[in-house]
Specification:
Radius of gyration of chain B: 19 Å
Number of strands of chain B: 14
Order of helices and strands of chain A: EEHEEEHHHH
CATH topology of the largest domain in chain A: Ubiquitin-like (UB roll)
Strand content of chain A: 15-25%
Number of helices of chain A: 5
Shape of chain B: globular
Oligomer: heterodimer
Largest sheet of chain A: 5 strands, mixed
Strand order of the largest sheet of chain A: 2-1-5-3-4
Structural class of chain A: alpha+beta
Helix content of chain A: 25-40%
CATH architecture of the largest domain in chain B: 2-Layer Sandwich
CATH superfamily of the largest domain in chain A: Beta-grasp domain
Distance between the termini of chain A: 53 Å
């Protein structure tokens, strides 16, 4: 049950580390790299709280093993900060009140980022589809959809 | 949520993977996209002692036209299938089935081969494979063989694959010109596994049904064909009454659907009839039926 040596980039910085093969990407990022912005919700790929962007695709990091990230380019919510400034998506969640308890928020923000990277001016249906894998038990989603509209420069 | 420890292997070629699987005598599991297996590992419902991760085998990631069909490498993600113009243009039923799978995060990692080999009876790909009579290409240390969809799904989460077999490709025949199709399901929430679903292909000659195929999923241990309902349709003048009676036949034909906290067995049976009628109607309209 030996460790596995993997190389990857996370939020722009390169790492080469030994990981336990049974660790998920989520666990490695939180426990080994101490990036705790990403949350664990269900651990079964249903809630989206642990969403990250890996090689340009939104994924649930509880359903990806750390060794599967070998050679990948990973972005977590921490990686959205640029020179100490919040990303426009983060700013939009604040402005519209798209955050209540905040547990789903890192995942929601990563899902929004992935959506806007591909679809800069999404329709409401695009937003519903893009965020379909992210559960929020507080807001009823309306404020979150408004955050995505705001982040994409569209009127609510 | 932590999986139990296991040895991890990540072969870079199919040959290497097959020889590794032939050699390992542990309780080995093959890892593809991991969207079914990793949750099972996290919950420790699966506790293999070794994993063979196929994720680095780039040669199994492709979608191409092949001898009147579309061949898809087992490691192709559901997202890649969904975004394939070839699939959307030539095999829209596969595109529609893919759109029903879970949500973006899952489709970004989940693979077509993984979904078929996992064989969840409520999943979309096993059903669409049975509907279209797909062929499965399988490699093991002893060579390559092809298994038809009708022989591939054995029972709940069980296929004709042996422990050292690797599913490498699934090949879907194209539908003939004029054949109508439908693939629908009923879920509690968007992206959930289907409580019940139906896939249909139908062809009309004049107003008469000349071909019908009905596959139901989520209602038995594997996706199932409703042969009695198909027979009730072929050779008959298509009408709303005929569709209603074929749906009734399909509903009565299935065994004992699963009963769980999502739906009772009776409700799943009821839904199977509703899904059959709706799918038949949609497929018939695509085949040119005007009612």
């Amino acid at each position: 049950m030996g460790k596995v040596n993997i190389s990857f980039t996370i939020n722009g910085s390169s790492h080469q580390i030994d990981v336990e093969p049974q660790w998920t990407l989520l666990e490695m990022v939180r426990e080994q790299l101490h990036l705790t912005g990403t949350k664990e919700g269900c651990g079964t790929g249903d809630c989206g709280a642990c969403s990250m962007i890996v090689d340009g695709r939104l994924i649930t990091s509880c359903c990806m093993l750390a060794p599967q990230a070998d050679g990948s380019d990973v972005t977590t919510v921490e990686g959205l900060l640029a020179n100490g400034d919040l990303h426009p998506v983060q700013q939009a969640f604040i402005e519209t009140g798209g955050v209540q308890c905040g547990f789903c928020t890192p995942g929601m923000i990563m899902a929004t980022k992935a959506l806007l990277d591909r679809t800069p001016k999404p329709t409401l249906d695009d937003i519903r589809e893009g965020l379909a894998g992210n559960l929020c038990r507080c807001t009823g989603y309306t404020k979150i959809y408004e955050a995505v509209m705001t982040a994409s420069g569209q009127e609510i | 949520m932590k999986p139990a420890p296991f040895d991890y292997h990540d072969p870079e070629t199919l040959d290497e993977a097959v020889s590794l699987l032939g050699r390992l005598d542990d309780d080995v599991k093959i890892l593809a996209g991991g969207q079914s297996l990793i949750p099972l590992l996290n919950m420790r419902l699966a506790r293999p002692t070794a994993l063979v991760d196929l994720g680095k085998i780039a040669e199994l990631d492709y979608i191409r036209e092949d001898n009147g069909g579309i061949a898809i490498g087992a490691l192709t993600t559901q997202r890649t299938v969904e975004r394939s113009q070839l699939v959307k243009d030539r095999l829209p039923v596969l595109y529609e089935a893919t759109r029903l799978i879970a949500h973006p995060q899952i489709r970004n990692r989940g693979t077509i081969g993984g979904s078929l080999a996992h064989a969840d009876p409520a999943a979309e790909y096993p059903a669409v494979a049975l509907l279209l009579d797909a062929d499965f290409k399988v490699r093991s240390a002893s060579g390559e063989r092809t298994i038809g969809a009708a022989d591939f799904f054995v029972t709940y989460l069980t296929t004709a694959l042996g422990p050292a077999d690797v599913l490498t490709e699934v090949r879907f025949p194209l539908l003939a010109e004029g054949v109508g199709w439908s693939f629908i399901e009923m879920t509690r929430r968007h992206g959930d596994f289907a409580l019940a679903g139906a896939g249909v292909t139908i062809a009309l000659s004049g107003g008469e049904c000349s071909h019908a195929r009905i596959v139901l999923f989520g209602v038995d241990a594997t996706p199932v064909r409703s042969k009695a309902a198909e027979q009730a349709l072929v050779g008959q003048e298509l009408s709303e009454e005929l569709i209603a009676s074929a749906a009734q036949t399909a509903r009565d034909e299935i065994g004992e659907p699963l009963s769980d906290n999502h739906a009772s067995s009776e409700f799943r049976r009821h839904l199977a009839g509703v899904m059959t009628a709706r799918a038949l109607t949609e497929a018939a309209r695509r085949a040119g039926w005007v009612n």
